[in-house]
Design brief:
With about 475 residues, the chain is mostly helical. It folds into two domains: about 230 residues, no CATH class; about 210 residues, no CATH class. A two-stranded antiparallel sheet has the order 1-2. Helix 2 crosses helix 5, helix 3 crosses helix 17 and helix 16 packs parallel to helix 20. The longest helix has about 35 residues. It is globular and about 70 Å long. It starts with 14 loop residues before the first helix and ends with a helix. The structure holds iron/sulfur cluster (2 copies). One iron/sulfur cluster (SF4) binds next to loops.
């Protein structure tokens, strides 16, 4: 979806922003070395645990490499990368990520074909996110190194193949722009971040794709309006040049609050509503008694009707088959996990869509500007904070467990509940600011905010058992 934009005035750059920019510019020569080191580290974390014997029940974290690698990936890297988006935007992508860097390396020697329409389709990264999120559950990537190898090996292979085949122009990252499930997540959450790369000489017109120029993610830099696709590679930043982009520090959440100026997009909404709903399902099936009751009933029915192959394990690249680890998923488990996660995604998306639609309708009724569709699109962004903190808490369970052992059970539980509540409050605040931009104030604003409250409550009710147990 595209929107027309008025000319964006040049933003004055603060002293701190200038210092950050100069520091980043002077140190960008190290980026290839950092990428190479990260690539080696990434391979070590993925491959070495496959070569080692499985840890026994007495193995301890930091005394066993397999457990350490698992913790570094799930307990440390994933939650902290999400948190880092608030403070540094998508710096993970531009500065550290080995998959994005390797996709760009192969692009240099690759075929550089035009990016096909199916890859440029706005739903492509959401489908990629859903597939990888479900696969991570069915192969149990949180528990076994083979699962980690399947998920990250597949992601790396796709990044390399796409990078080799597609991306005309200078050193492109088609995978990062259009397909990476992590990039989709970081891109949406970067709209909450306090770093913005803004054009020094902004041009009139909507945000647009271009394969001309230096940007690896195809951004037409002088018409750049949003943070989503900027991986902060620093290629367009030159402190003494009159053109290009400048680094600005801003209030966290300000892009979401003023989303109408920053190219709101349907794929963010698909991710926020459907993608995070599927992710909730990944946390929920483990804890929900109803899931296990239904699974038991279907298993009994399958035995009674002679569907025994449905109760046998499938290939290890598709589901967890670890007899020694006391976990063997069958086709029944695979189907149940996949179906449950998709169903949770649909229910979550319907619940948030209903609340957002109600809010958009009420906003229009009470004097809000723009059409229903635009108001809906804007208001959907209020759910960014609650989605982000929920994923951080869910994925950070191992980090919190480590803290728990260090400082005792109660404080970490309180910290988790506090972060979750802060996310809900932040979402409401952004909803209020979006409604203000739609022209509402006073009691009309308070009334139009009621559906936002309902939406945050619904999100809280659905996330709560997934994060804190049923
Ligand atoms: S978009 Fe994905 S592959 Fe690309 S740099 Fe970011 S995390 Fe890495
Ligand atoms: S806009 Fe600039 S910093 Fe951002 S990805 Fe493109 S070239 Fe890199």
């Amino acid at each position: 979806m595209t929107h027309g934009y008025a000319h964006t005035p040049t933003m004055p750059q603060g002293l701190l922003s200038k210092r950050v920019e100069r520091f980043a510019f002077h140190h960008q020569k190290w980026l290839p070395w950092i990428h190479a080191a990260m690539f080696v580290g990434f391979l070590v974390l993925i491959v070495v645990p496959l070569l080692l014997p499985a840890p026994n029940d007495n193995a301890r974290l930091f005394h066993n490499f397999t457990l350490t690698a698992n913790f570094l990936i799930w307990g440390f890297w994933f939650p902290l990368v999400f948190v880092s988006v608030i403070f540094t935007g998508r710096s993970w992508c531009g500065v550290l990520c080995p998959m994005g860097a390797s996709s760009e390396w192969v692009n240099r020697i690759g075929l550089k074909r035009m990016v096909p329409r199916w890859i440029r389709w706005e739903g492509a990264p959401v489908v990629s996110f859903i597939v990888i999120t479900i696969l991570a559950q069915t192969v149990d990537a949180r528990s076994f190194p083979e699962g980690i190898a399947v998920v990250f090996g597949l992601t790396l292979a796709c990044a390399l193949i796409v990078g080799f085949l597609y991306g005309p122009g200078y050193h492109k990252r088609t995978w990062c722009r259009h397909l990476c499930p992590i990039g989709l997540t970081l891109g949406s959450f970067s709209r909450l971040g306090m770093v913005q790369f803004a054009p020094k000489k902004p041009r009139i017109g909507a945000e647009a794709l271009t394969d001309k120029g230096v940007c690896p993610t195809f951004i037409d830099i002088n018409r750049k309006r949003e943070s989503r696709h900027c991986i902060e590679c620093l290629r367009c930043v030159q402190p003494n040049a009159k053109g290009g982009l400048a680094i600005h520090l801003r209030k966290p959440g300000s892009e979401a609050e003023n989303i109408r100026d920053h190219h709101p997009h349907n794929s963010d909404i698909w991710f926020l509503f459907l993608g995070t709903g599927v992710a909730i399902g990944g946390f929920l099936w483990l804890t929900l008694p109803l899931y296990w009751q239904v699974r038991h009933a279907i298993a009994v029915w399958a035995i009674g009707n002679g569907w025994l192959s449905f109760l046998s394990p499938g290939p290890a690249w598709l589901m967890s088959v670890h007899p020694a680890g006391r976990e063997v998923f069958t086709w029944l488990d695979f189907s149940m996990i996949t179906g449950f996660m998709l169903a949770t995604g649909v229910v979550f998306a319907l619940a948030l869509s209903a609340c957002t639609a109600l809010g958009s309708w009420m906003s229009g009724l009470l004097g809000g500007d723009k059409c229903f569709r635009h108001r809906f699109l804007e208001l959907a962004y209020q759910y960014l904070p609650v989605a982000m903190v929920s994923l951080v808490i869910g994925l950070g369970s191992e980090l919190f467990a480590l803290l728990e052992r260090a400082i005792g059970a109660t404080p970490t539980h309180i910290i988790e509940v506090f972060i979750f509540s802060a996310g809900l409050a932040w979402s409401l605040h952004i909803g209020r600011r979006i409604l203000m931009r739609q022209g509402l104030a006073g009691s009309r604003l308070a009334l139009a905010l009621v559906p936002s409250l309902l939406g945050c409550t619904a999100a809280g009710i659905i996330w709560w058992p997934a994060l804190f147990g049923a």
